[in-house]
Amino acid sequence: MTAQQQGVITTSPDDTRRPRRTRTTILAVMCLVILVALFIGYLPGLQYAIHWTSTDVVLAGISFLICMAYSTELSSVPVASRHTAIPLLTTMLLITGGFDHLFSLLIVITLICTTIPARSLSIGAIRACTALVPIPVVRLVLGELPAHLREIFISSVPRAEALNYIQSDWVFPLIVITALLPAARLLCDIVVYLISGVPVAKSLSEYSITRITALSLADLAAIVLTILLPAVFQYSEVQIIDSSLRSTFSILLDIYALLLMSFYMLRRMMRAENSLRCLLNISDALPLPNARPEHEVAEIITGSLPNIRCIMMTDDEMHHRRFHSYRHSQRIKEQGSQYSIVFERSMLNRPFLPADEEVLAAATSILNEELRVNREVSTLRSESETDPLTGAYTYPAFIATLKSLQTENASNKVAVIYLNIDQFRRINERYSRLVGNLVLRTTADRIREILPEDAFLSRISGSEFATVLTESASKDDVENLADRLRDNTSLPIQTGNGTISIATTTSLSFASSEEGATRLLIDAGLHELTPAMAEQNQEQSAKDHLEMSDALRDAIEKKHLTLLYQPIFSLPQHRIGALEMFPLITDSRNHRLDFDFVLSEAQRLGLGCELSMGILDRGVKDLLEFRKITPDLNNICLTLNGSELGNSQFYEYLESLRKRHPDISVCLQFGEAALNTARIQFDDELEDLTSMSNVHIAITQAGTTYSEVSALGNIPLDIIKLDPSIVNGYSNPLAVNIMKRTVQFAHRDGIHLVFDGIDTVEQTRLLHEVGGTEAQGTIYASMMTASEMRMRLETMGIDMGSAESGEVDVPSGISDVPGAAGVAGVSAAADASGSTSADASPAAVNRPGEKNDGNDITKPSYDL
After folding, report:
1. Which of 70, 130, 419, 823 could lock onto 257 through a cystine, CB 3.0 to 4.6 A?
2. Which pTM value belongs to this model?
């Protein structure tokens, strides 16, 4: 056990396993005096052993060492007696007549073998005495029986008489010995505990009745086999002499001790394996749930360690059951309460082992760290996902909850109750916004009064709340709860301006058995509209979603993919550095599918990898055509949907692409969905991916979510693409300074920083001010089809066509070129008003997710 782990185990002055040092020393001196006296008394008998043969001496020495090396704890108390093979050894020495000759040697070997593992002469002396206590018991009970048994070996006694003698004279002594040996050890331990100052009652609970019984029966079985040997020899009519007799008993003693040693070594290995498996199970369960993670740990330990129960005890619950022993961890402080991890075992079960204490220490460390992480995560979530006015969750948190239920709740017993405050704008206009805020807070509090404990309350718009109910009993129960919520929130509210009467309306949404929680997501998007509009559009939205999904599936499976390209410019070189690819897919009404919808829906359909490989196929073909015009153009960018990361075909495709076109580089962009997948699945594959010479890694929308920030430390990035919202802070000096520092850090670490969403002249000036070197946006070039991109390259090449200062210059004669039109339009608008207009911006030409002339670009009314 390491020093850090030892610090986790609770120790106290009255610990049942810690004897008092002064008393223990006195007891050890007494034991040493007894051992020395016995050694001196039996020392003369050693002279008779010199007449033994060398074989007898070697066998006897090996037997003594093996017999002493074997021992197993009967209790976890250091001064407690241990089980040894001495009772059997004593019986054999009495039978062979060598006890008086070798007892002095036995004392020395016993003292050495008990002192070395204890690493203390005091503890070793006490253990040596307790180990030798069974000897007088055996001698007293057996008396002259061993000498008679020796005569059977040496003399020619008929087998029938030998069996009769064993059955008539040995049965009762064996029963007495079997009962007296554990009793003698127990009595000896009680005396030792009393003298050394160890609490007797608590120390006795450390015993294992099962182990004591099993070892006593093992000793009995060994002695029975020993005394049956004469009958065996008589049956085989083999004559035996003293030397052969001693050799036979030595070998049998060795076999007995080695069998016990092997058995307990295997048992210890099994328990050590259980301990490791327990820690692995705890690690596999990480992260533990935010609610009551200590109970999760207790269940894992109880299920992994046989015959041990893990419980959590607070200071008020610290009570011990009789005939049970315990191990406590240090107190764990969590939200004002203090509790400890406690291991409990019965006296009928196996004793505690050092491995158990190591598991306890490791589990305590893991739990403390997990609680700390949960606290920090909860604080971050509370700050980012909680509405500061009402304390309810925000709309993004509401959508995230529905998404999680989409995959986690297999029973589909989920319902959402929407509650809206009628005429809330009138309350703000008539009574002021302060009163309106009071109405919102009061309504949220009234909703919480009725909701179940596991319900999820969020404020999804100015005056609308949503409540998510999991494991709802029935539709009638949800409707009754909605009626109660409406009645409770429609009560008048007392304000500083008097009593205000308000009215609320509710609507319900249920998960369906066919679509699961997807139905809730559809309804969640509709509830951003007014209730009347939501009711009218709900059915049409579901139908549109299915039509778009079918169109996407058909395009992927039949490989009917068309791409849009938008250049990424290198500002210092005034050239196109790469082309970003977007799939151009339309539904049956010729409405273009939103890019985010394409990525998420392809992943849901299980076609995410096929989509990415199809885009790469189409993009490489188009790039080869572009390079006939501009050979220096060799970089393409693709945004991943997340499902590619666990698919070996995608990695094989990239490797094949590298071999076919070694001069083409692919930039794989990780959005939020891909990052979430990478956090779960992306381990060894990341090494394989980044080792490819033609692959670069980027993250998109950086600076908006925690997942992208954490990716900076987990994924070896080449490129960071900032979210378009970042460049909207050009009027804030603090934001400008932050962007300057960000650019400096990126340059220092060799990371390419791409500013996305550069659509106005002001943003280009900001980009120049902060020192940005790579940009993408409609002011430079809008999205265009492959034919339009080819035309642009034929007329302008890979030149950017704009000045460093952000004043866009368009070469004469190319105003009709796609992409250049956008640049010219921006320049004209900038000259007229100093900023771009909606009509002049090329964002309205080909950008997915927006309107394109007469064809509306279809986007689901909810976020997938």
Report:
1. 70
2. 0.44
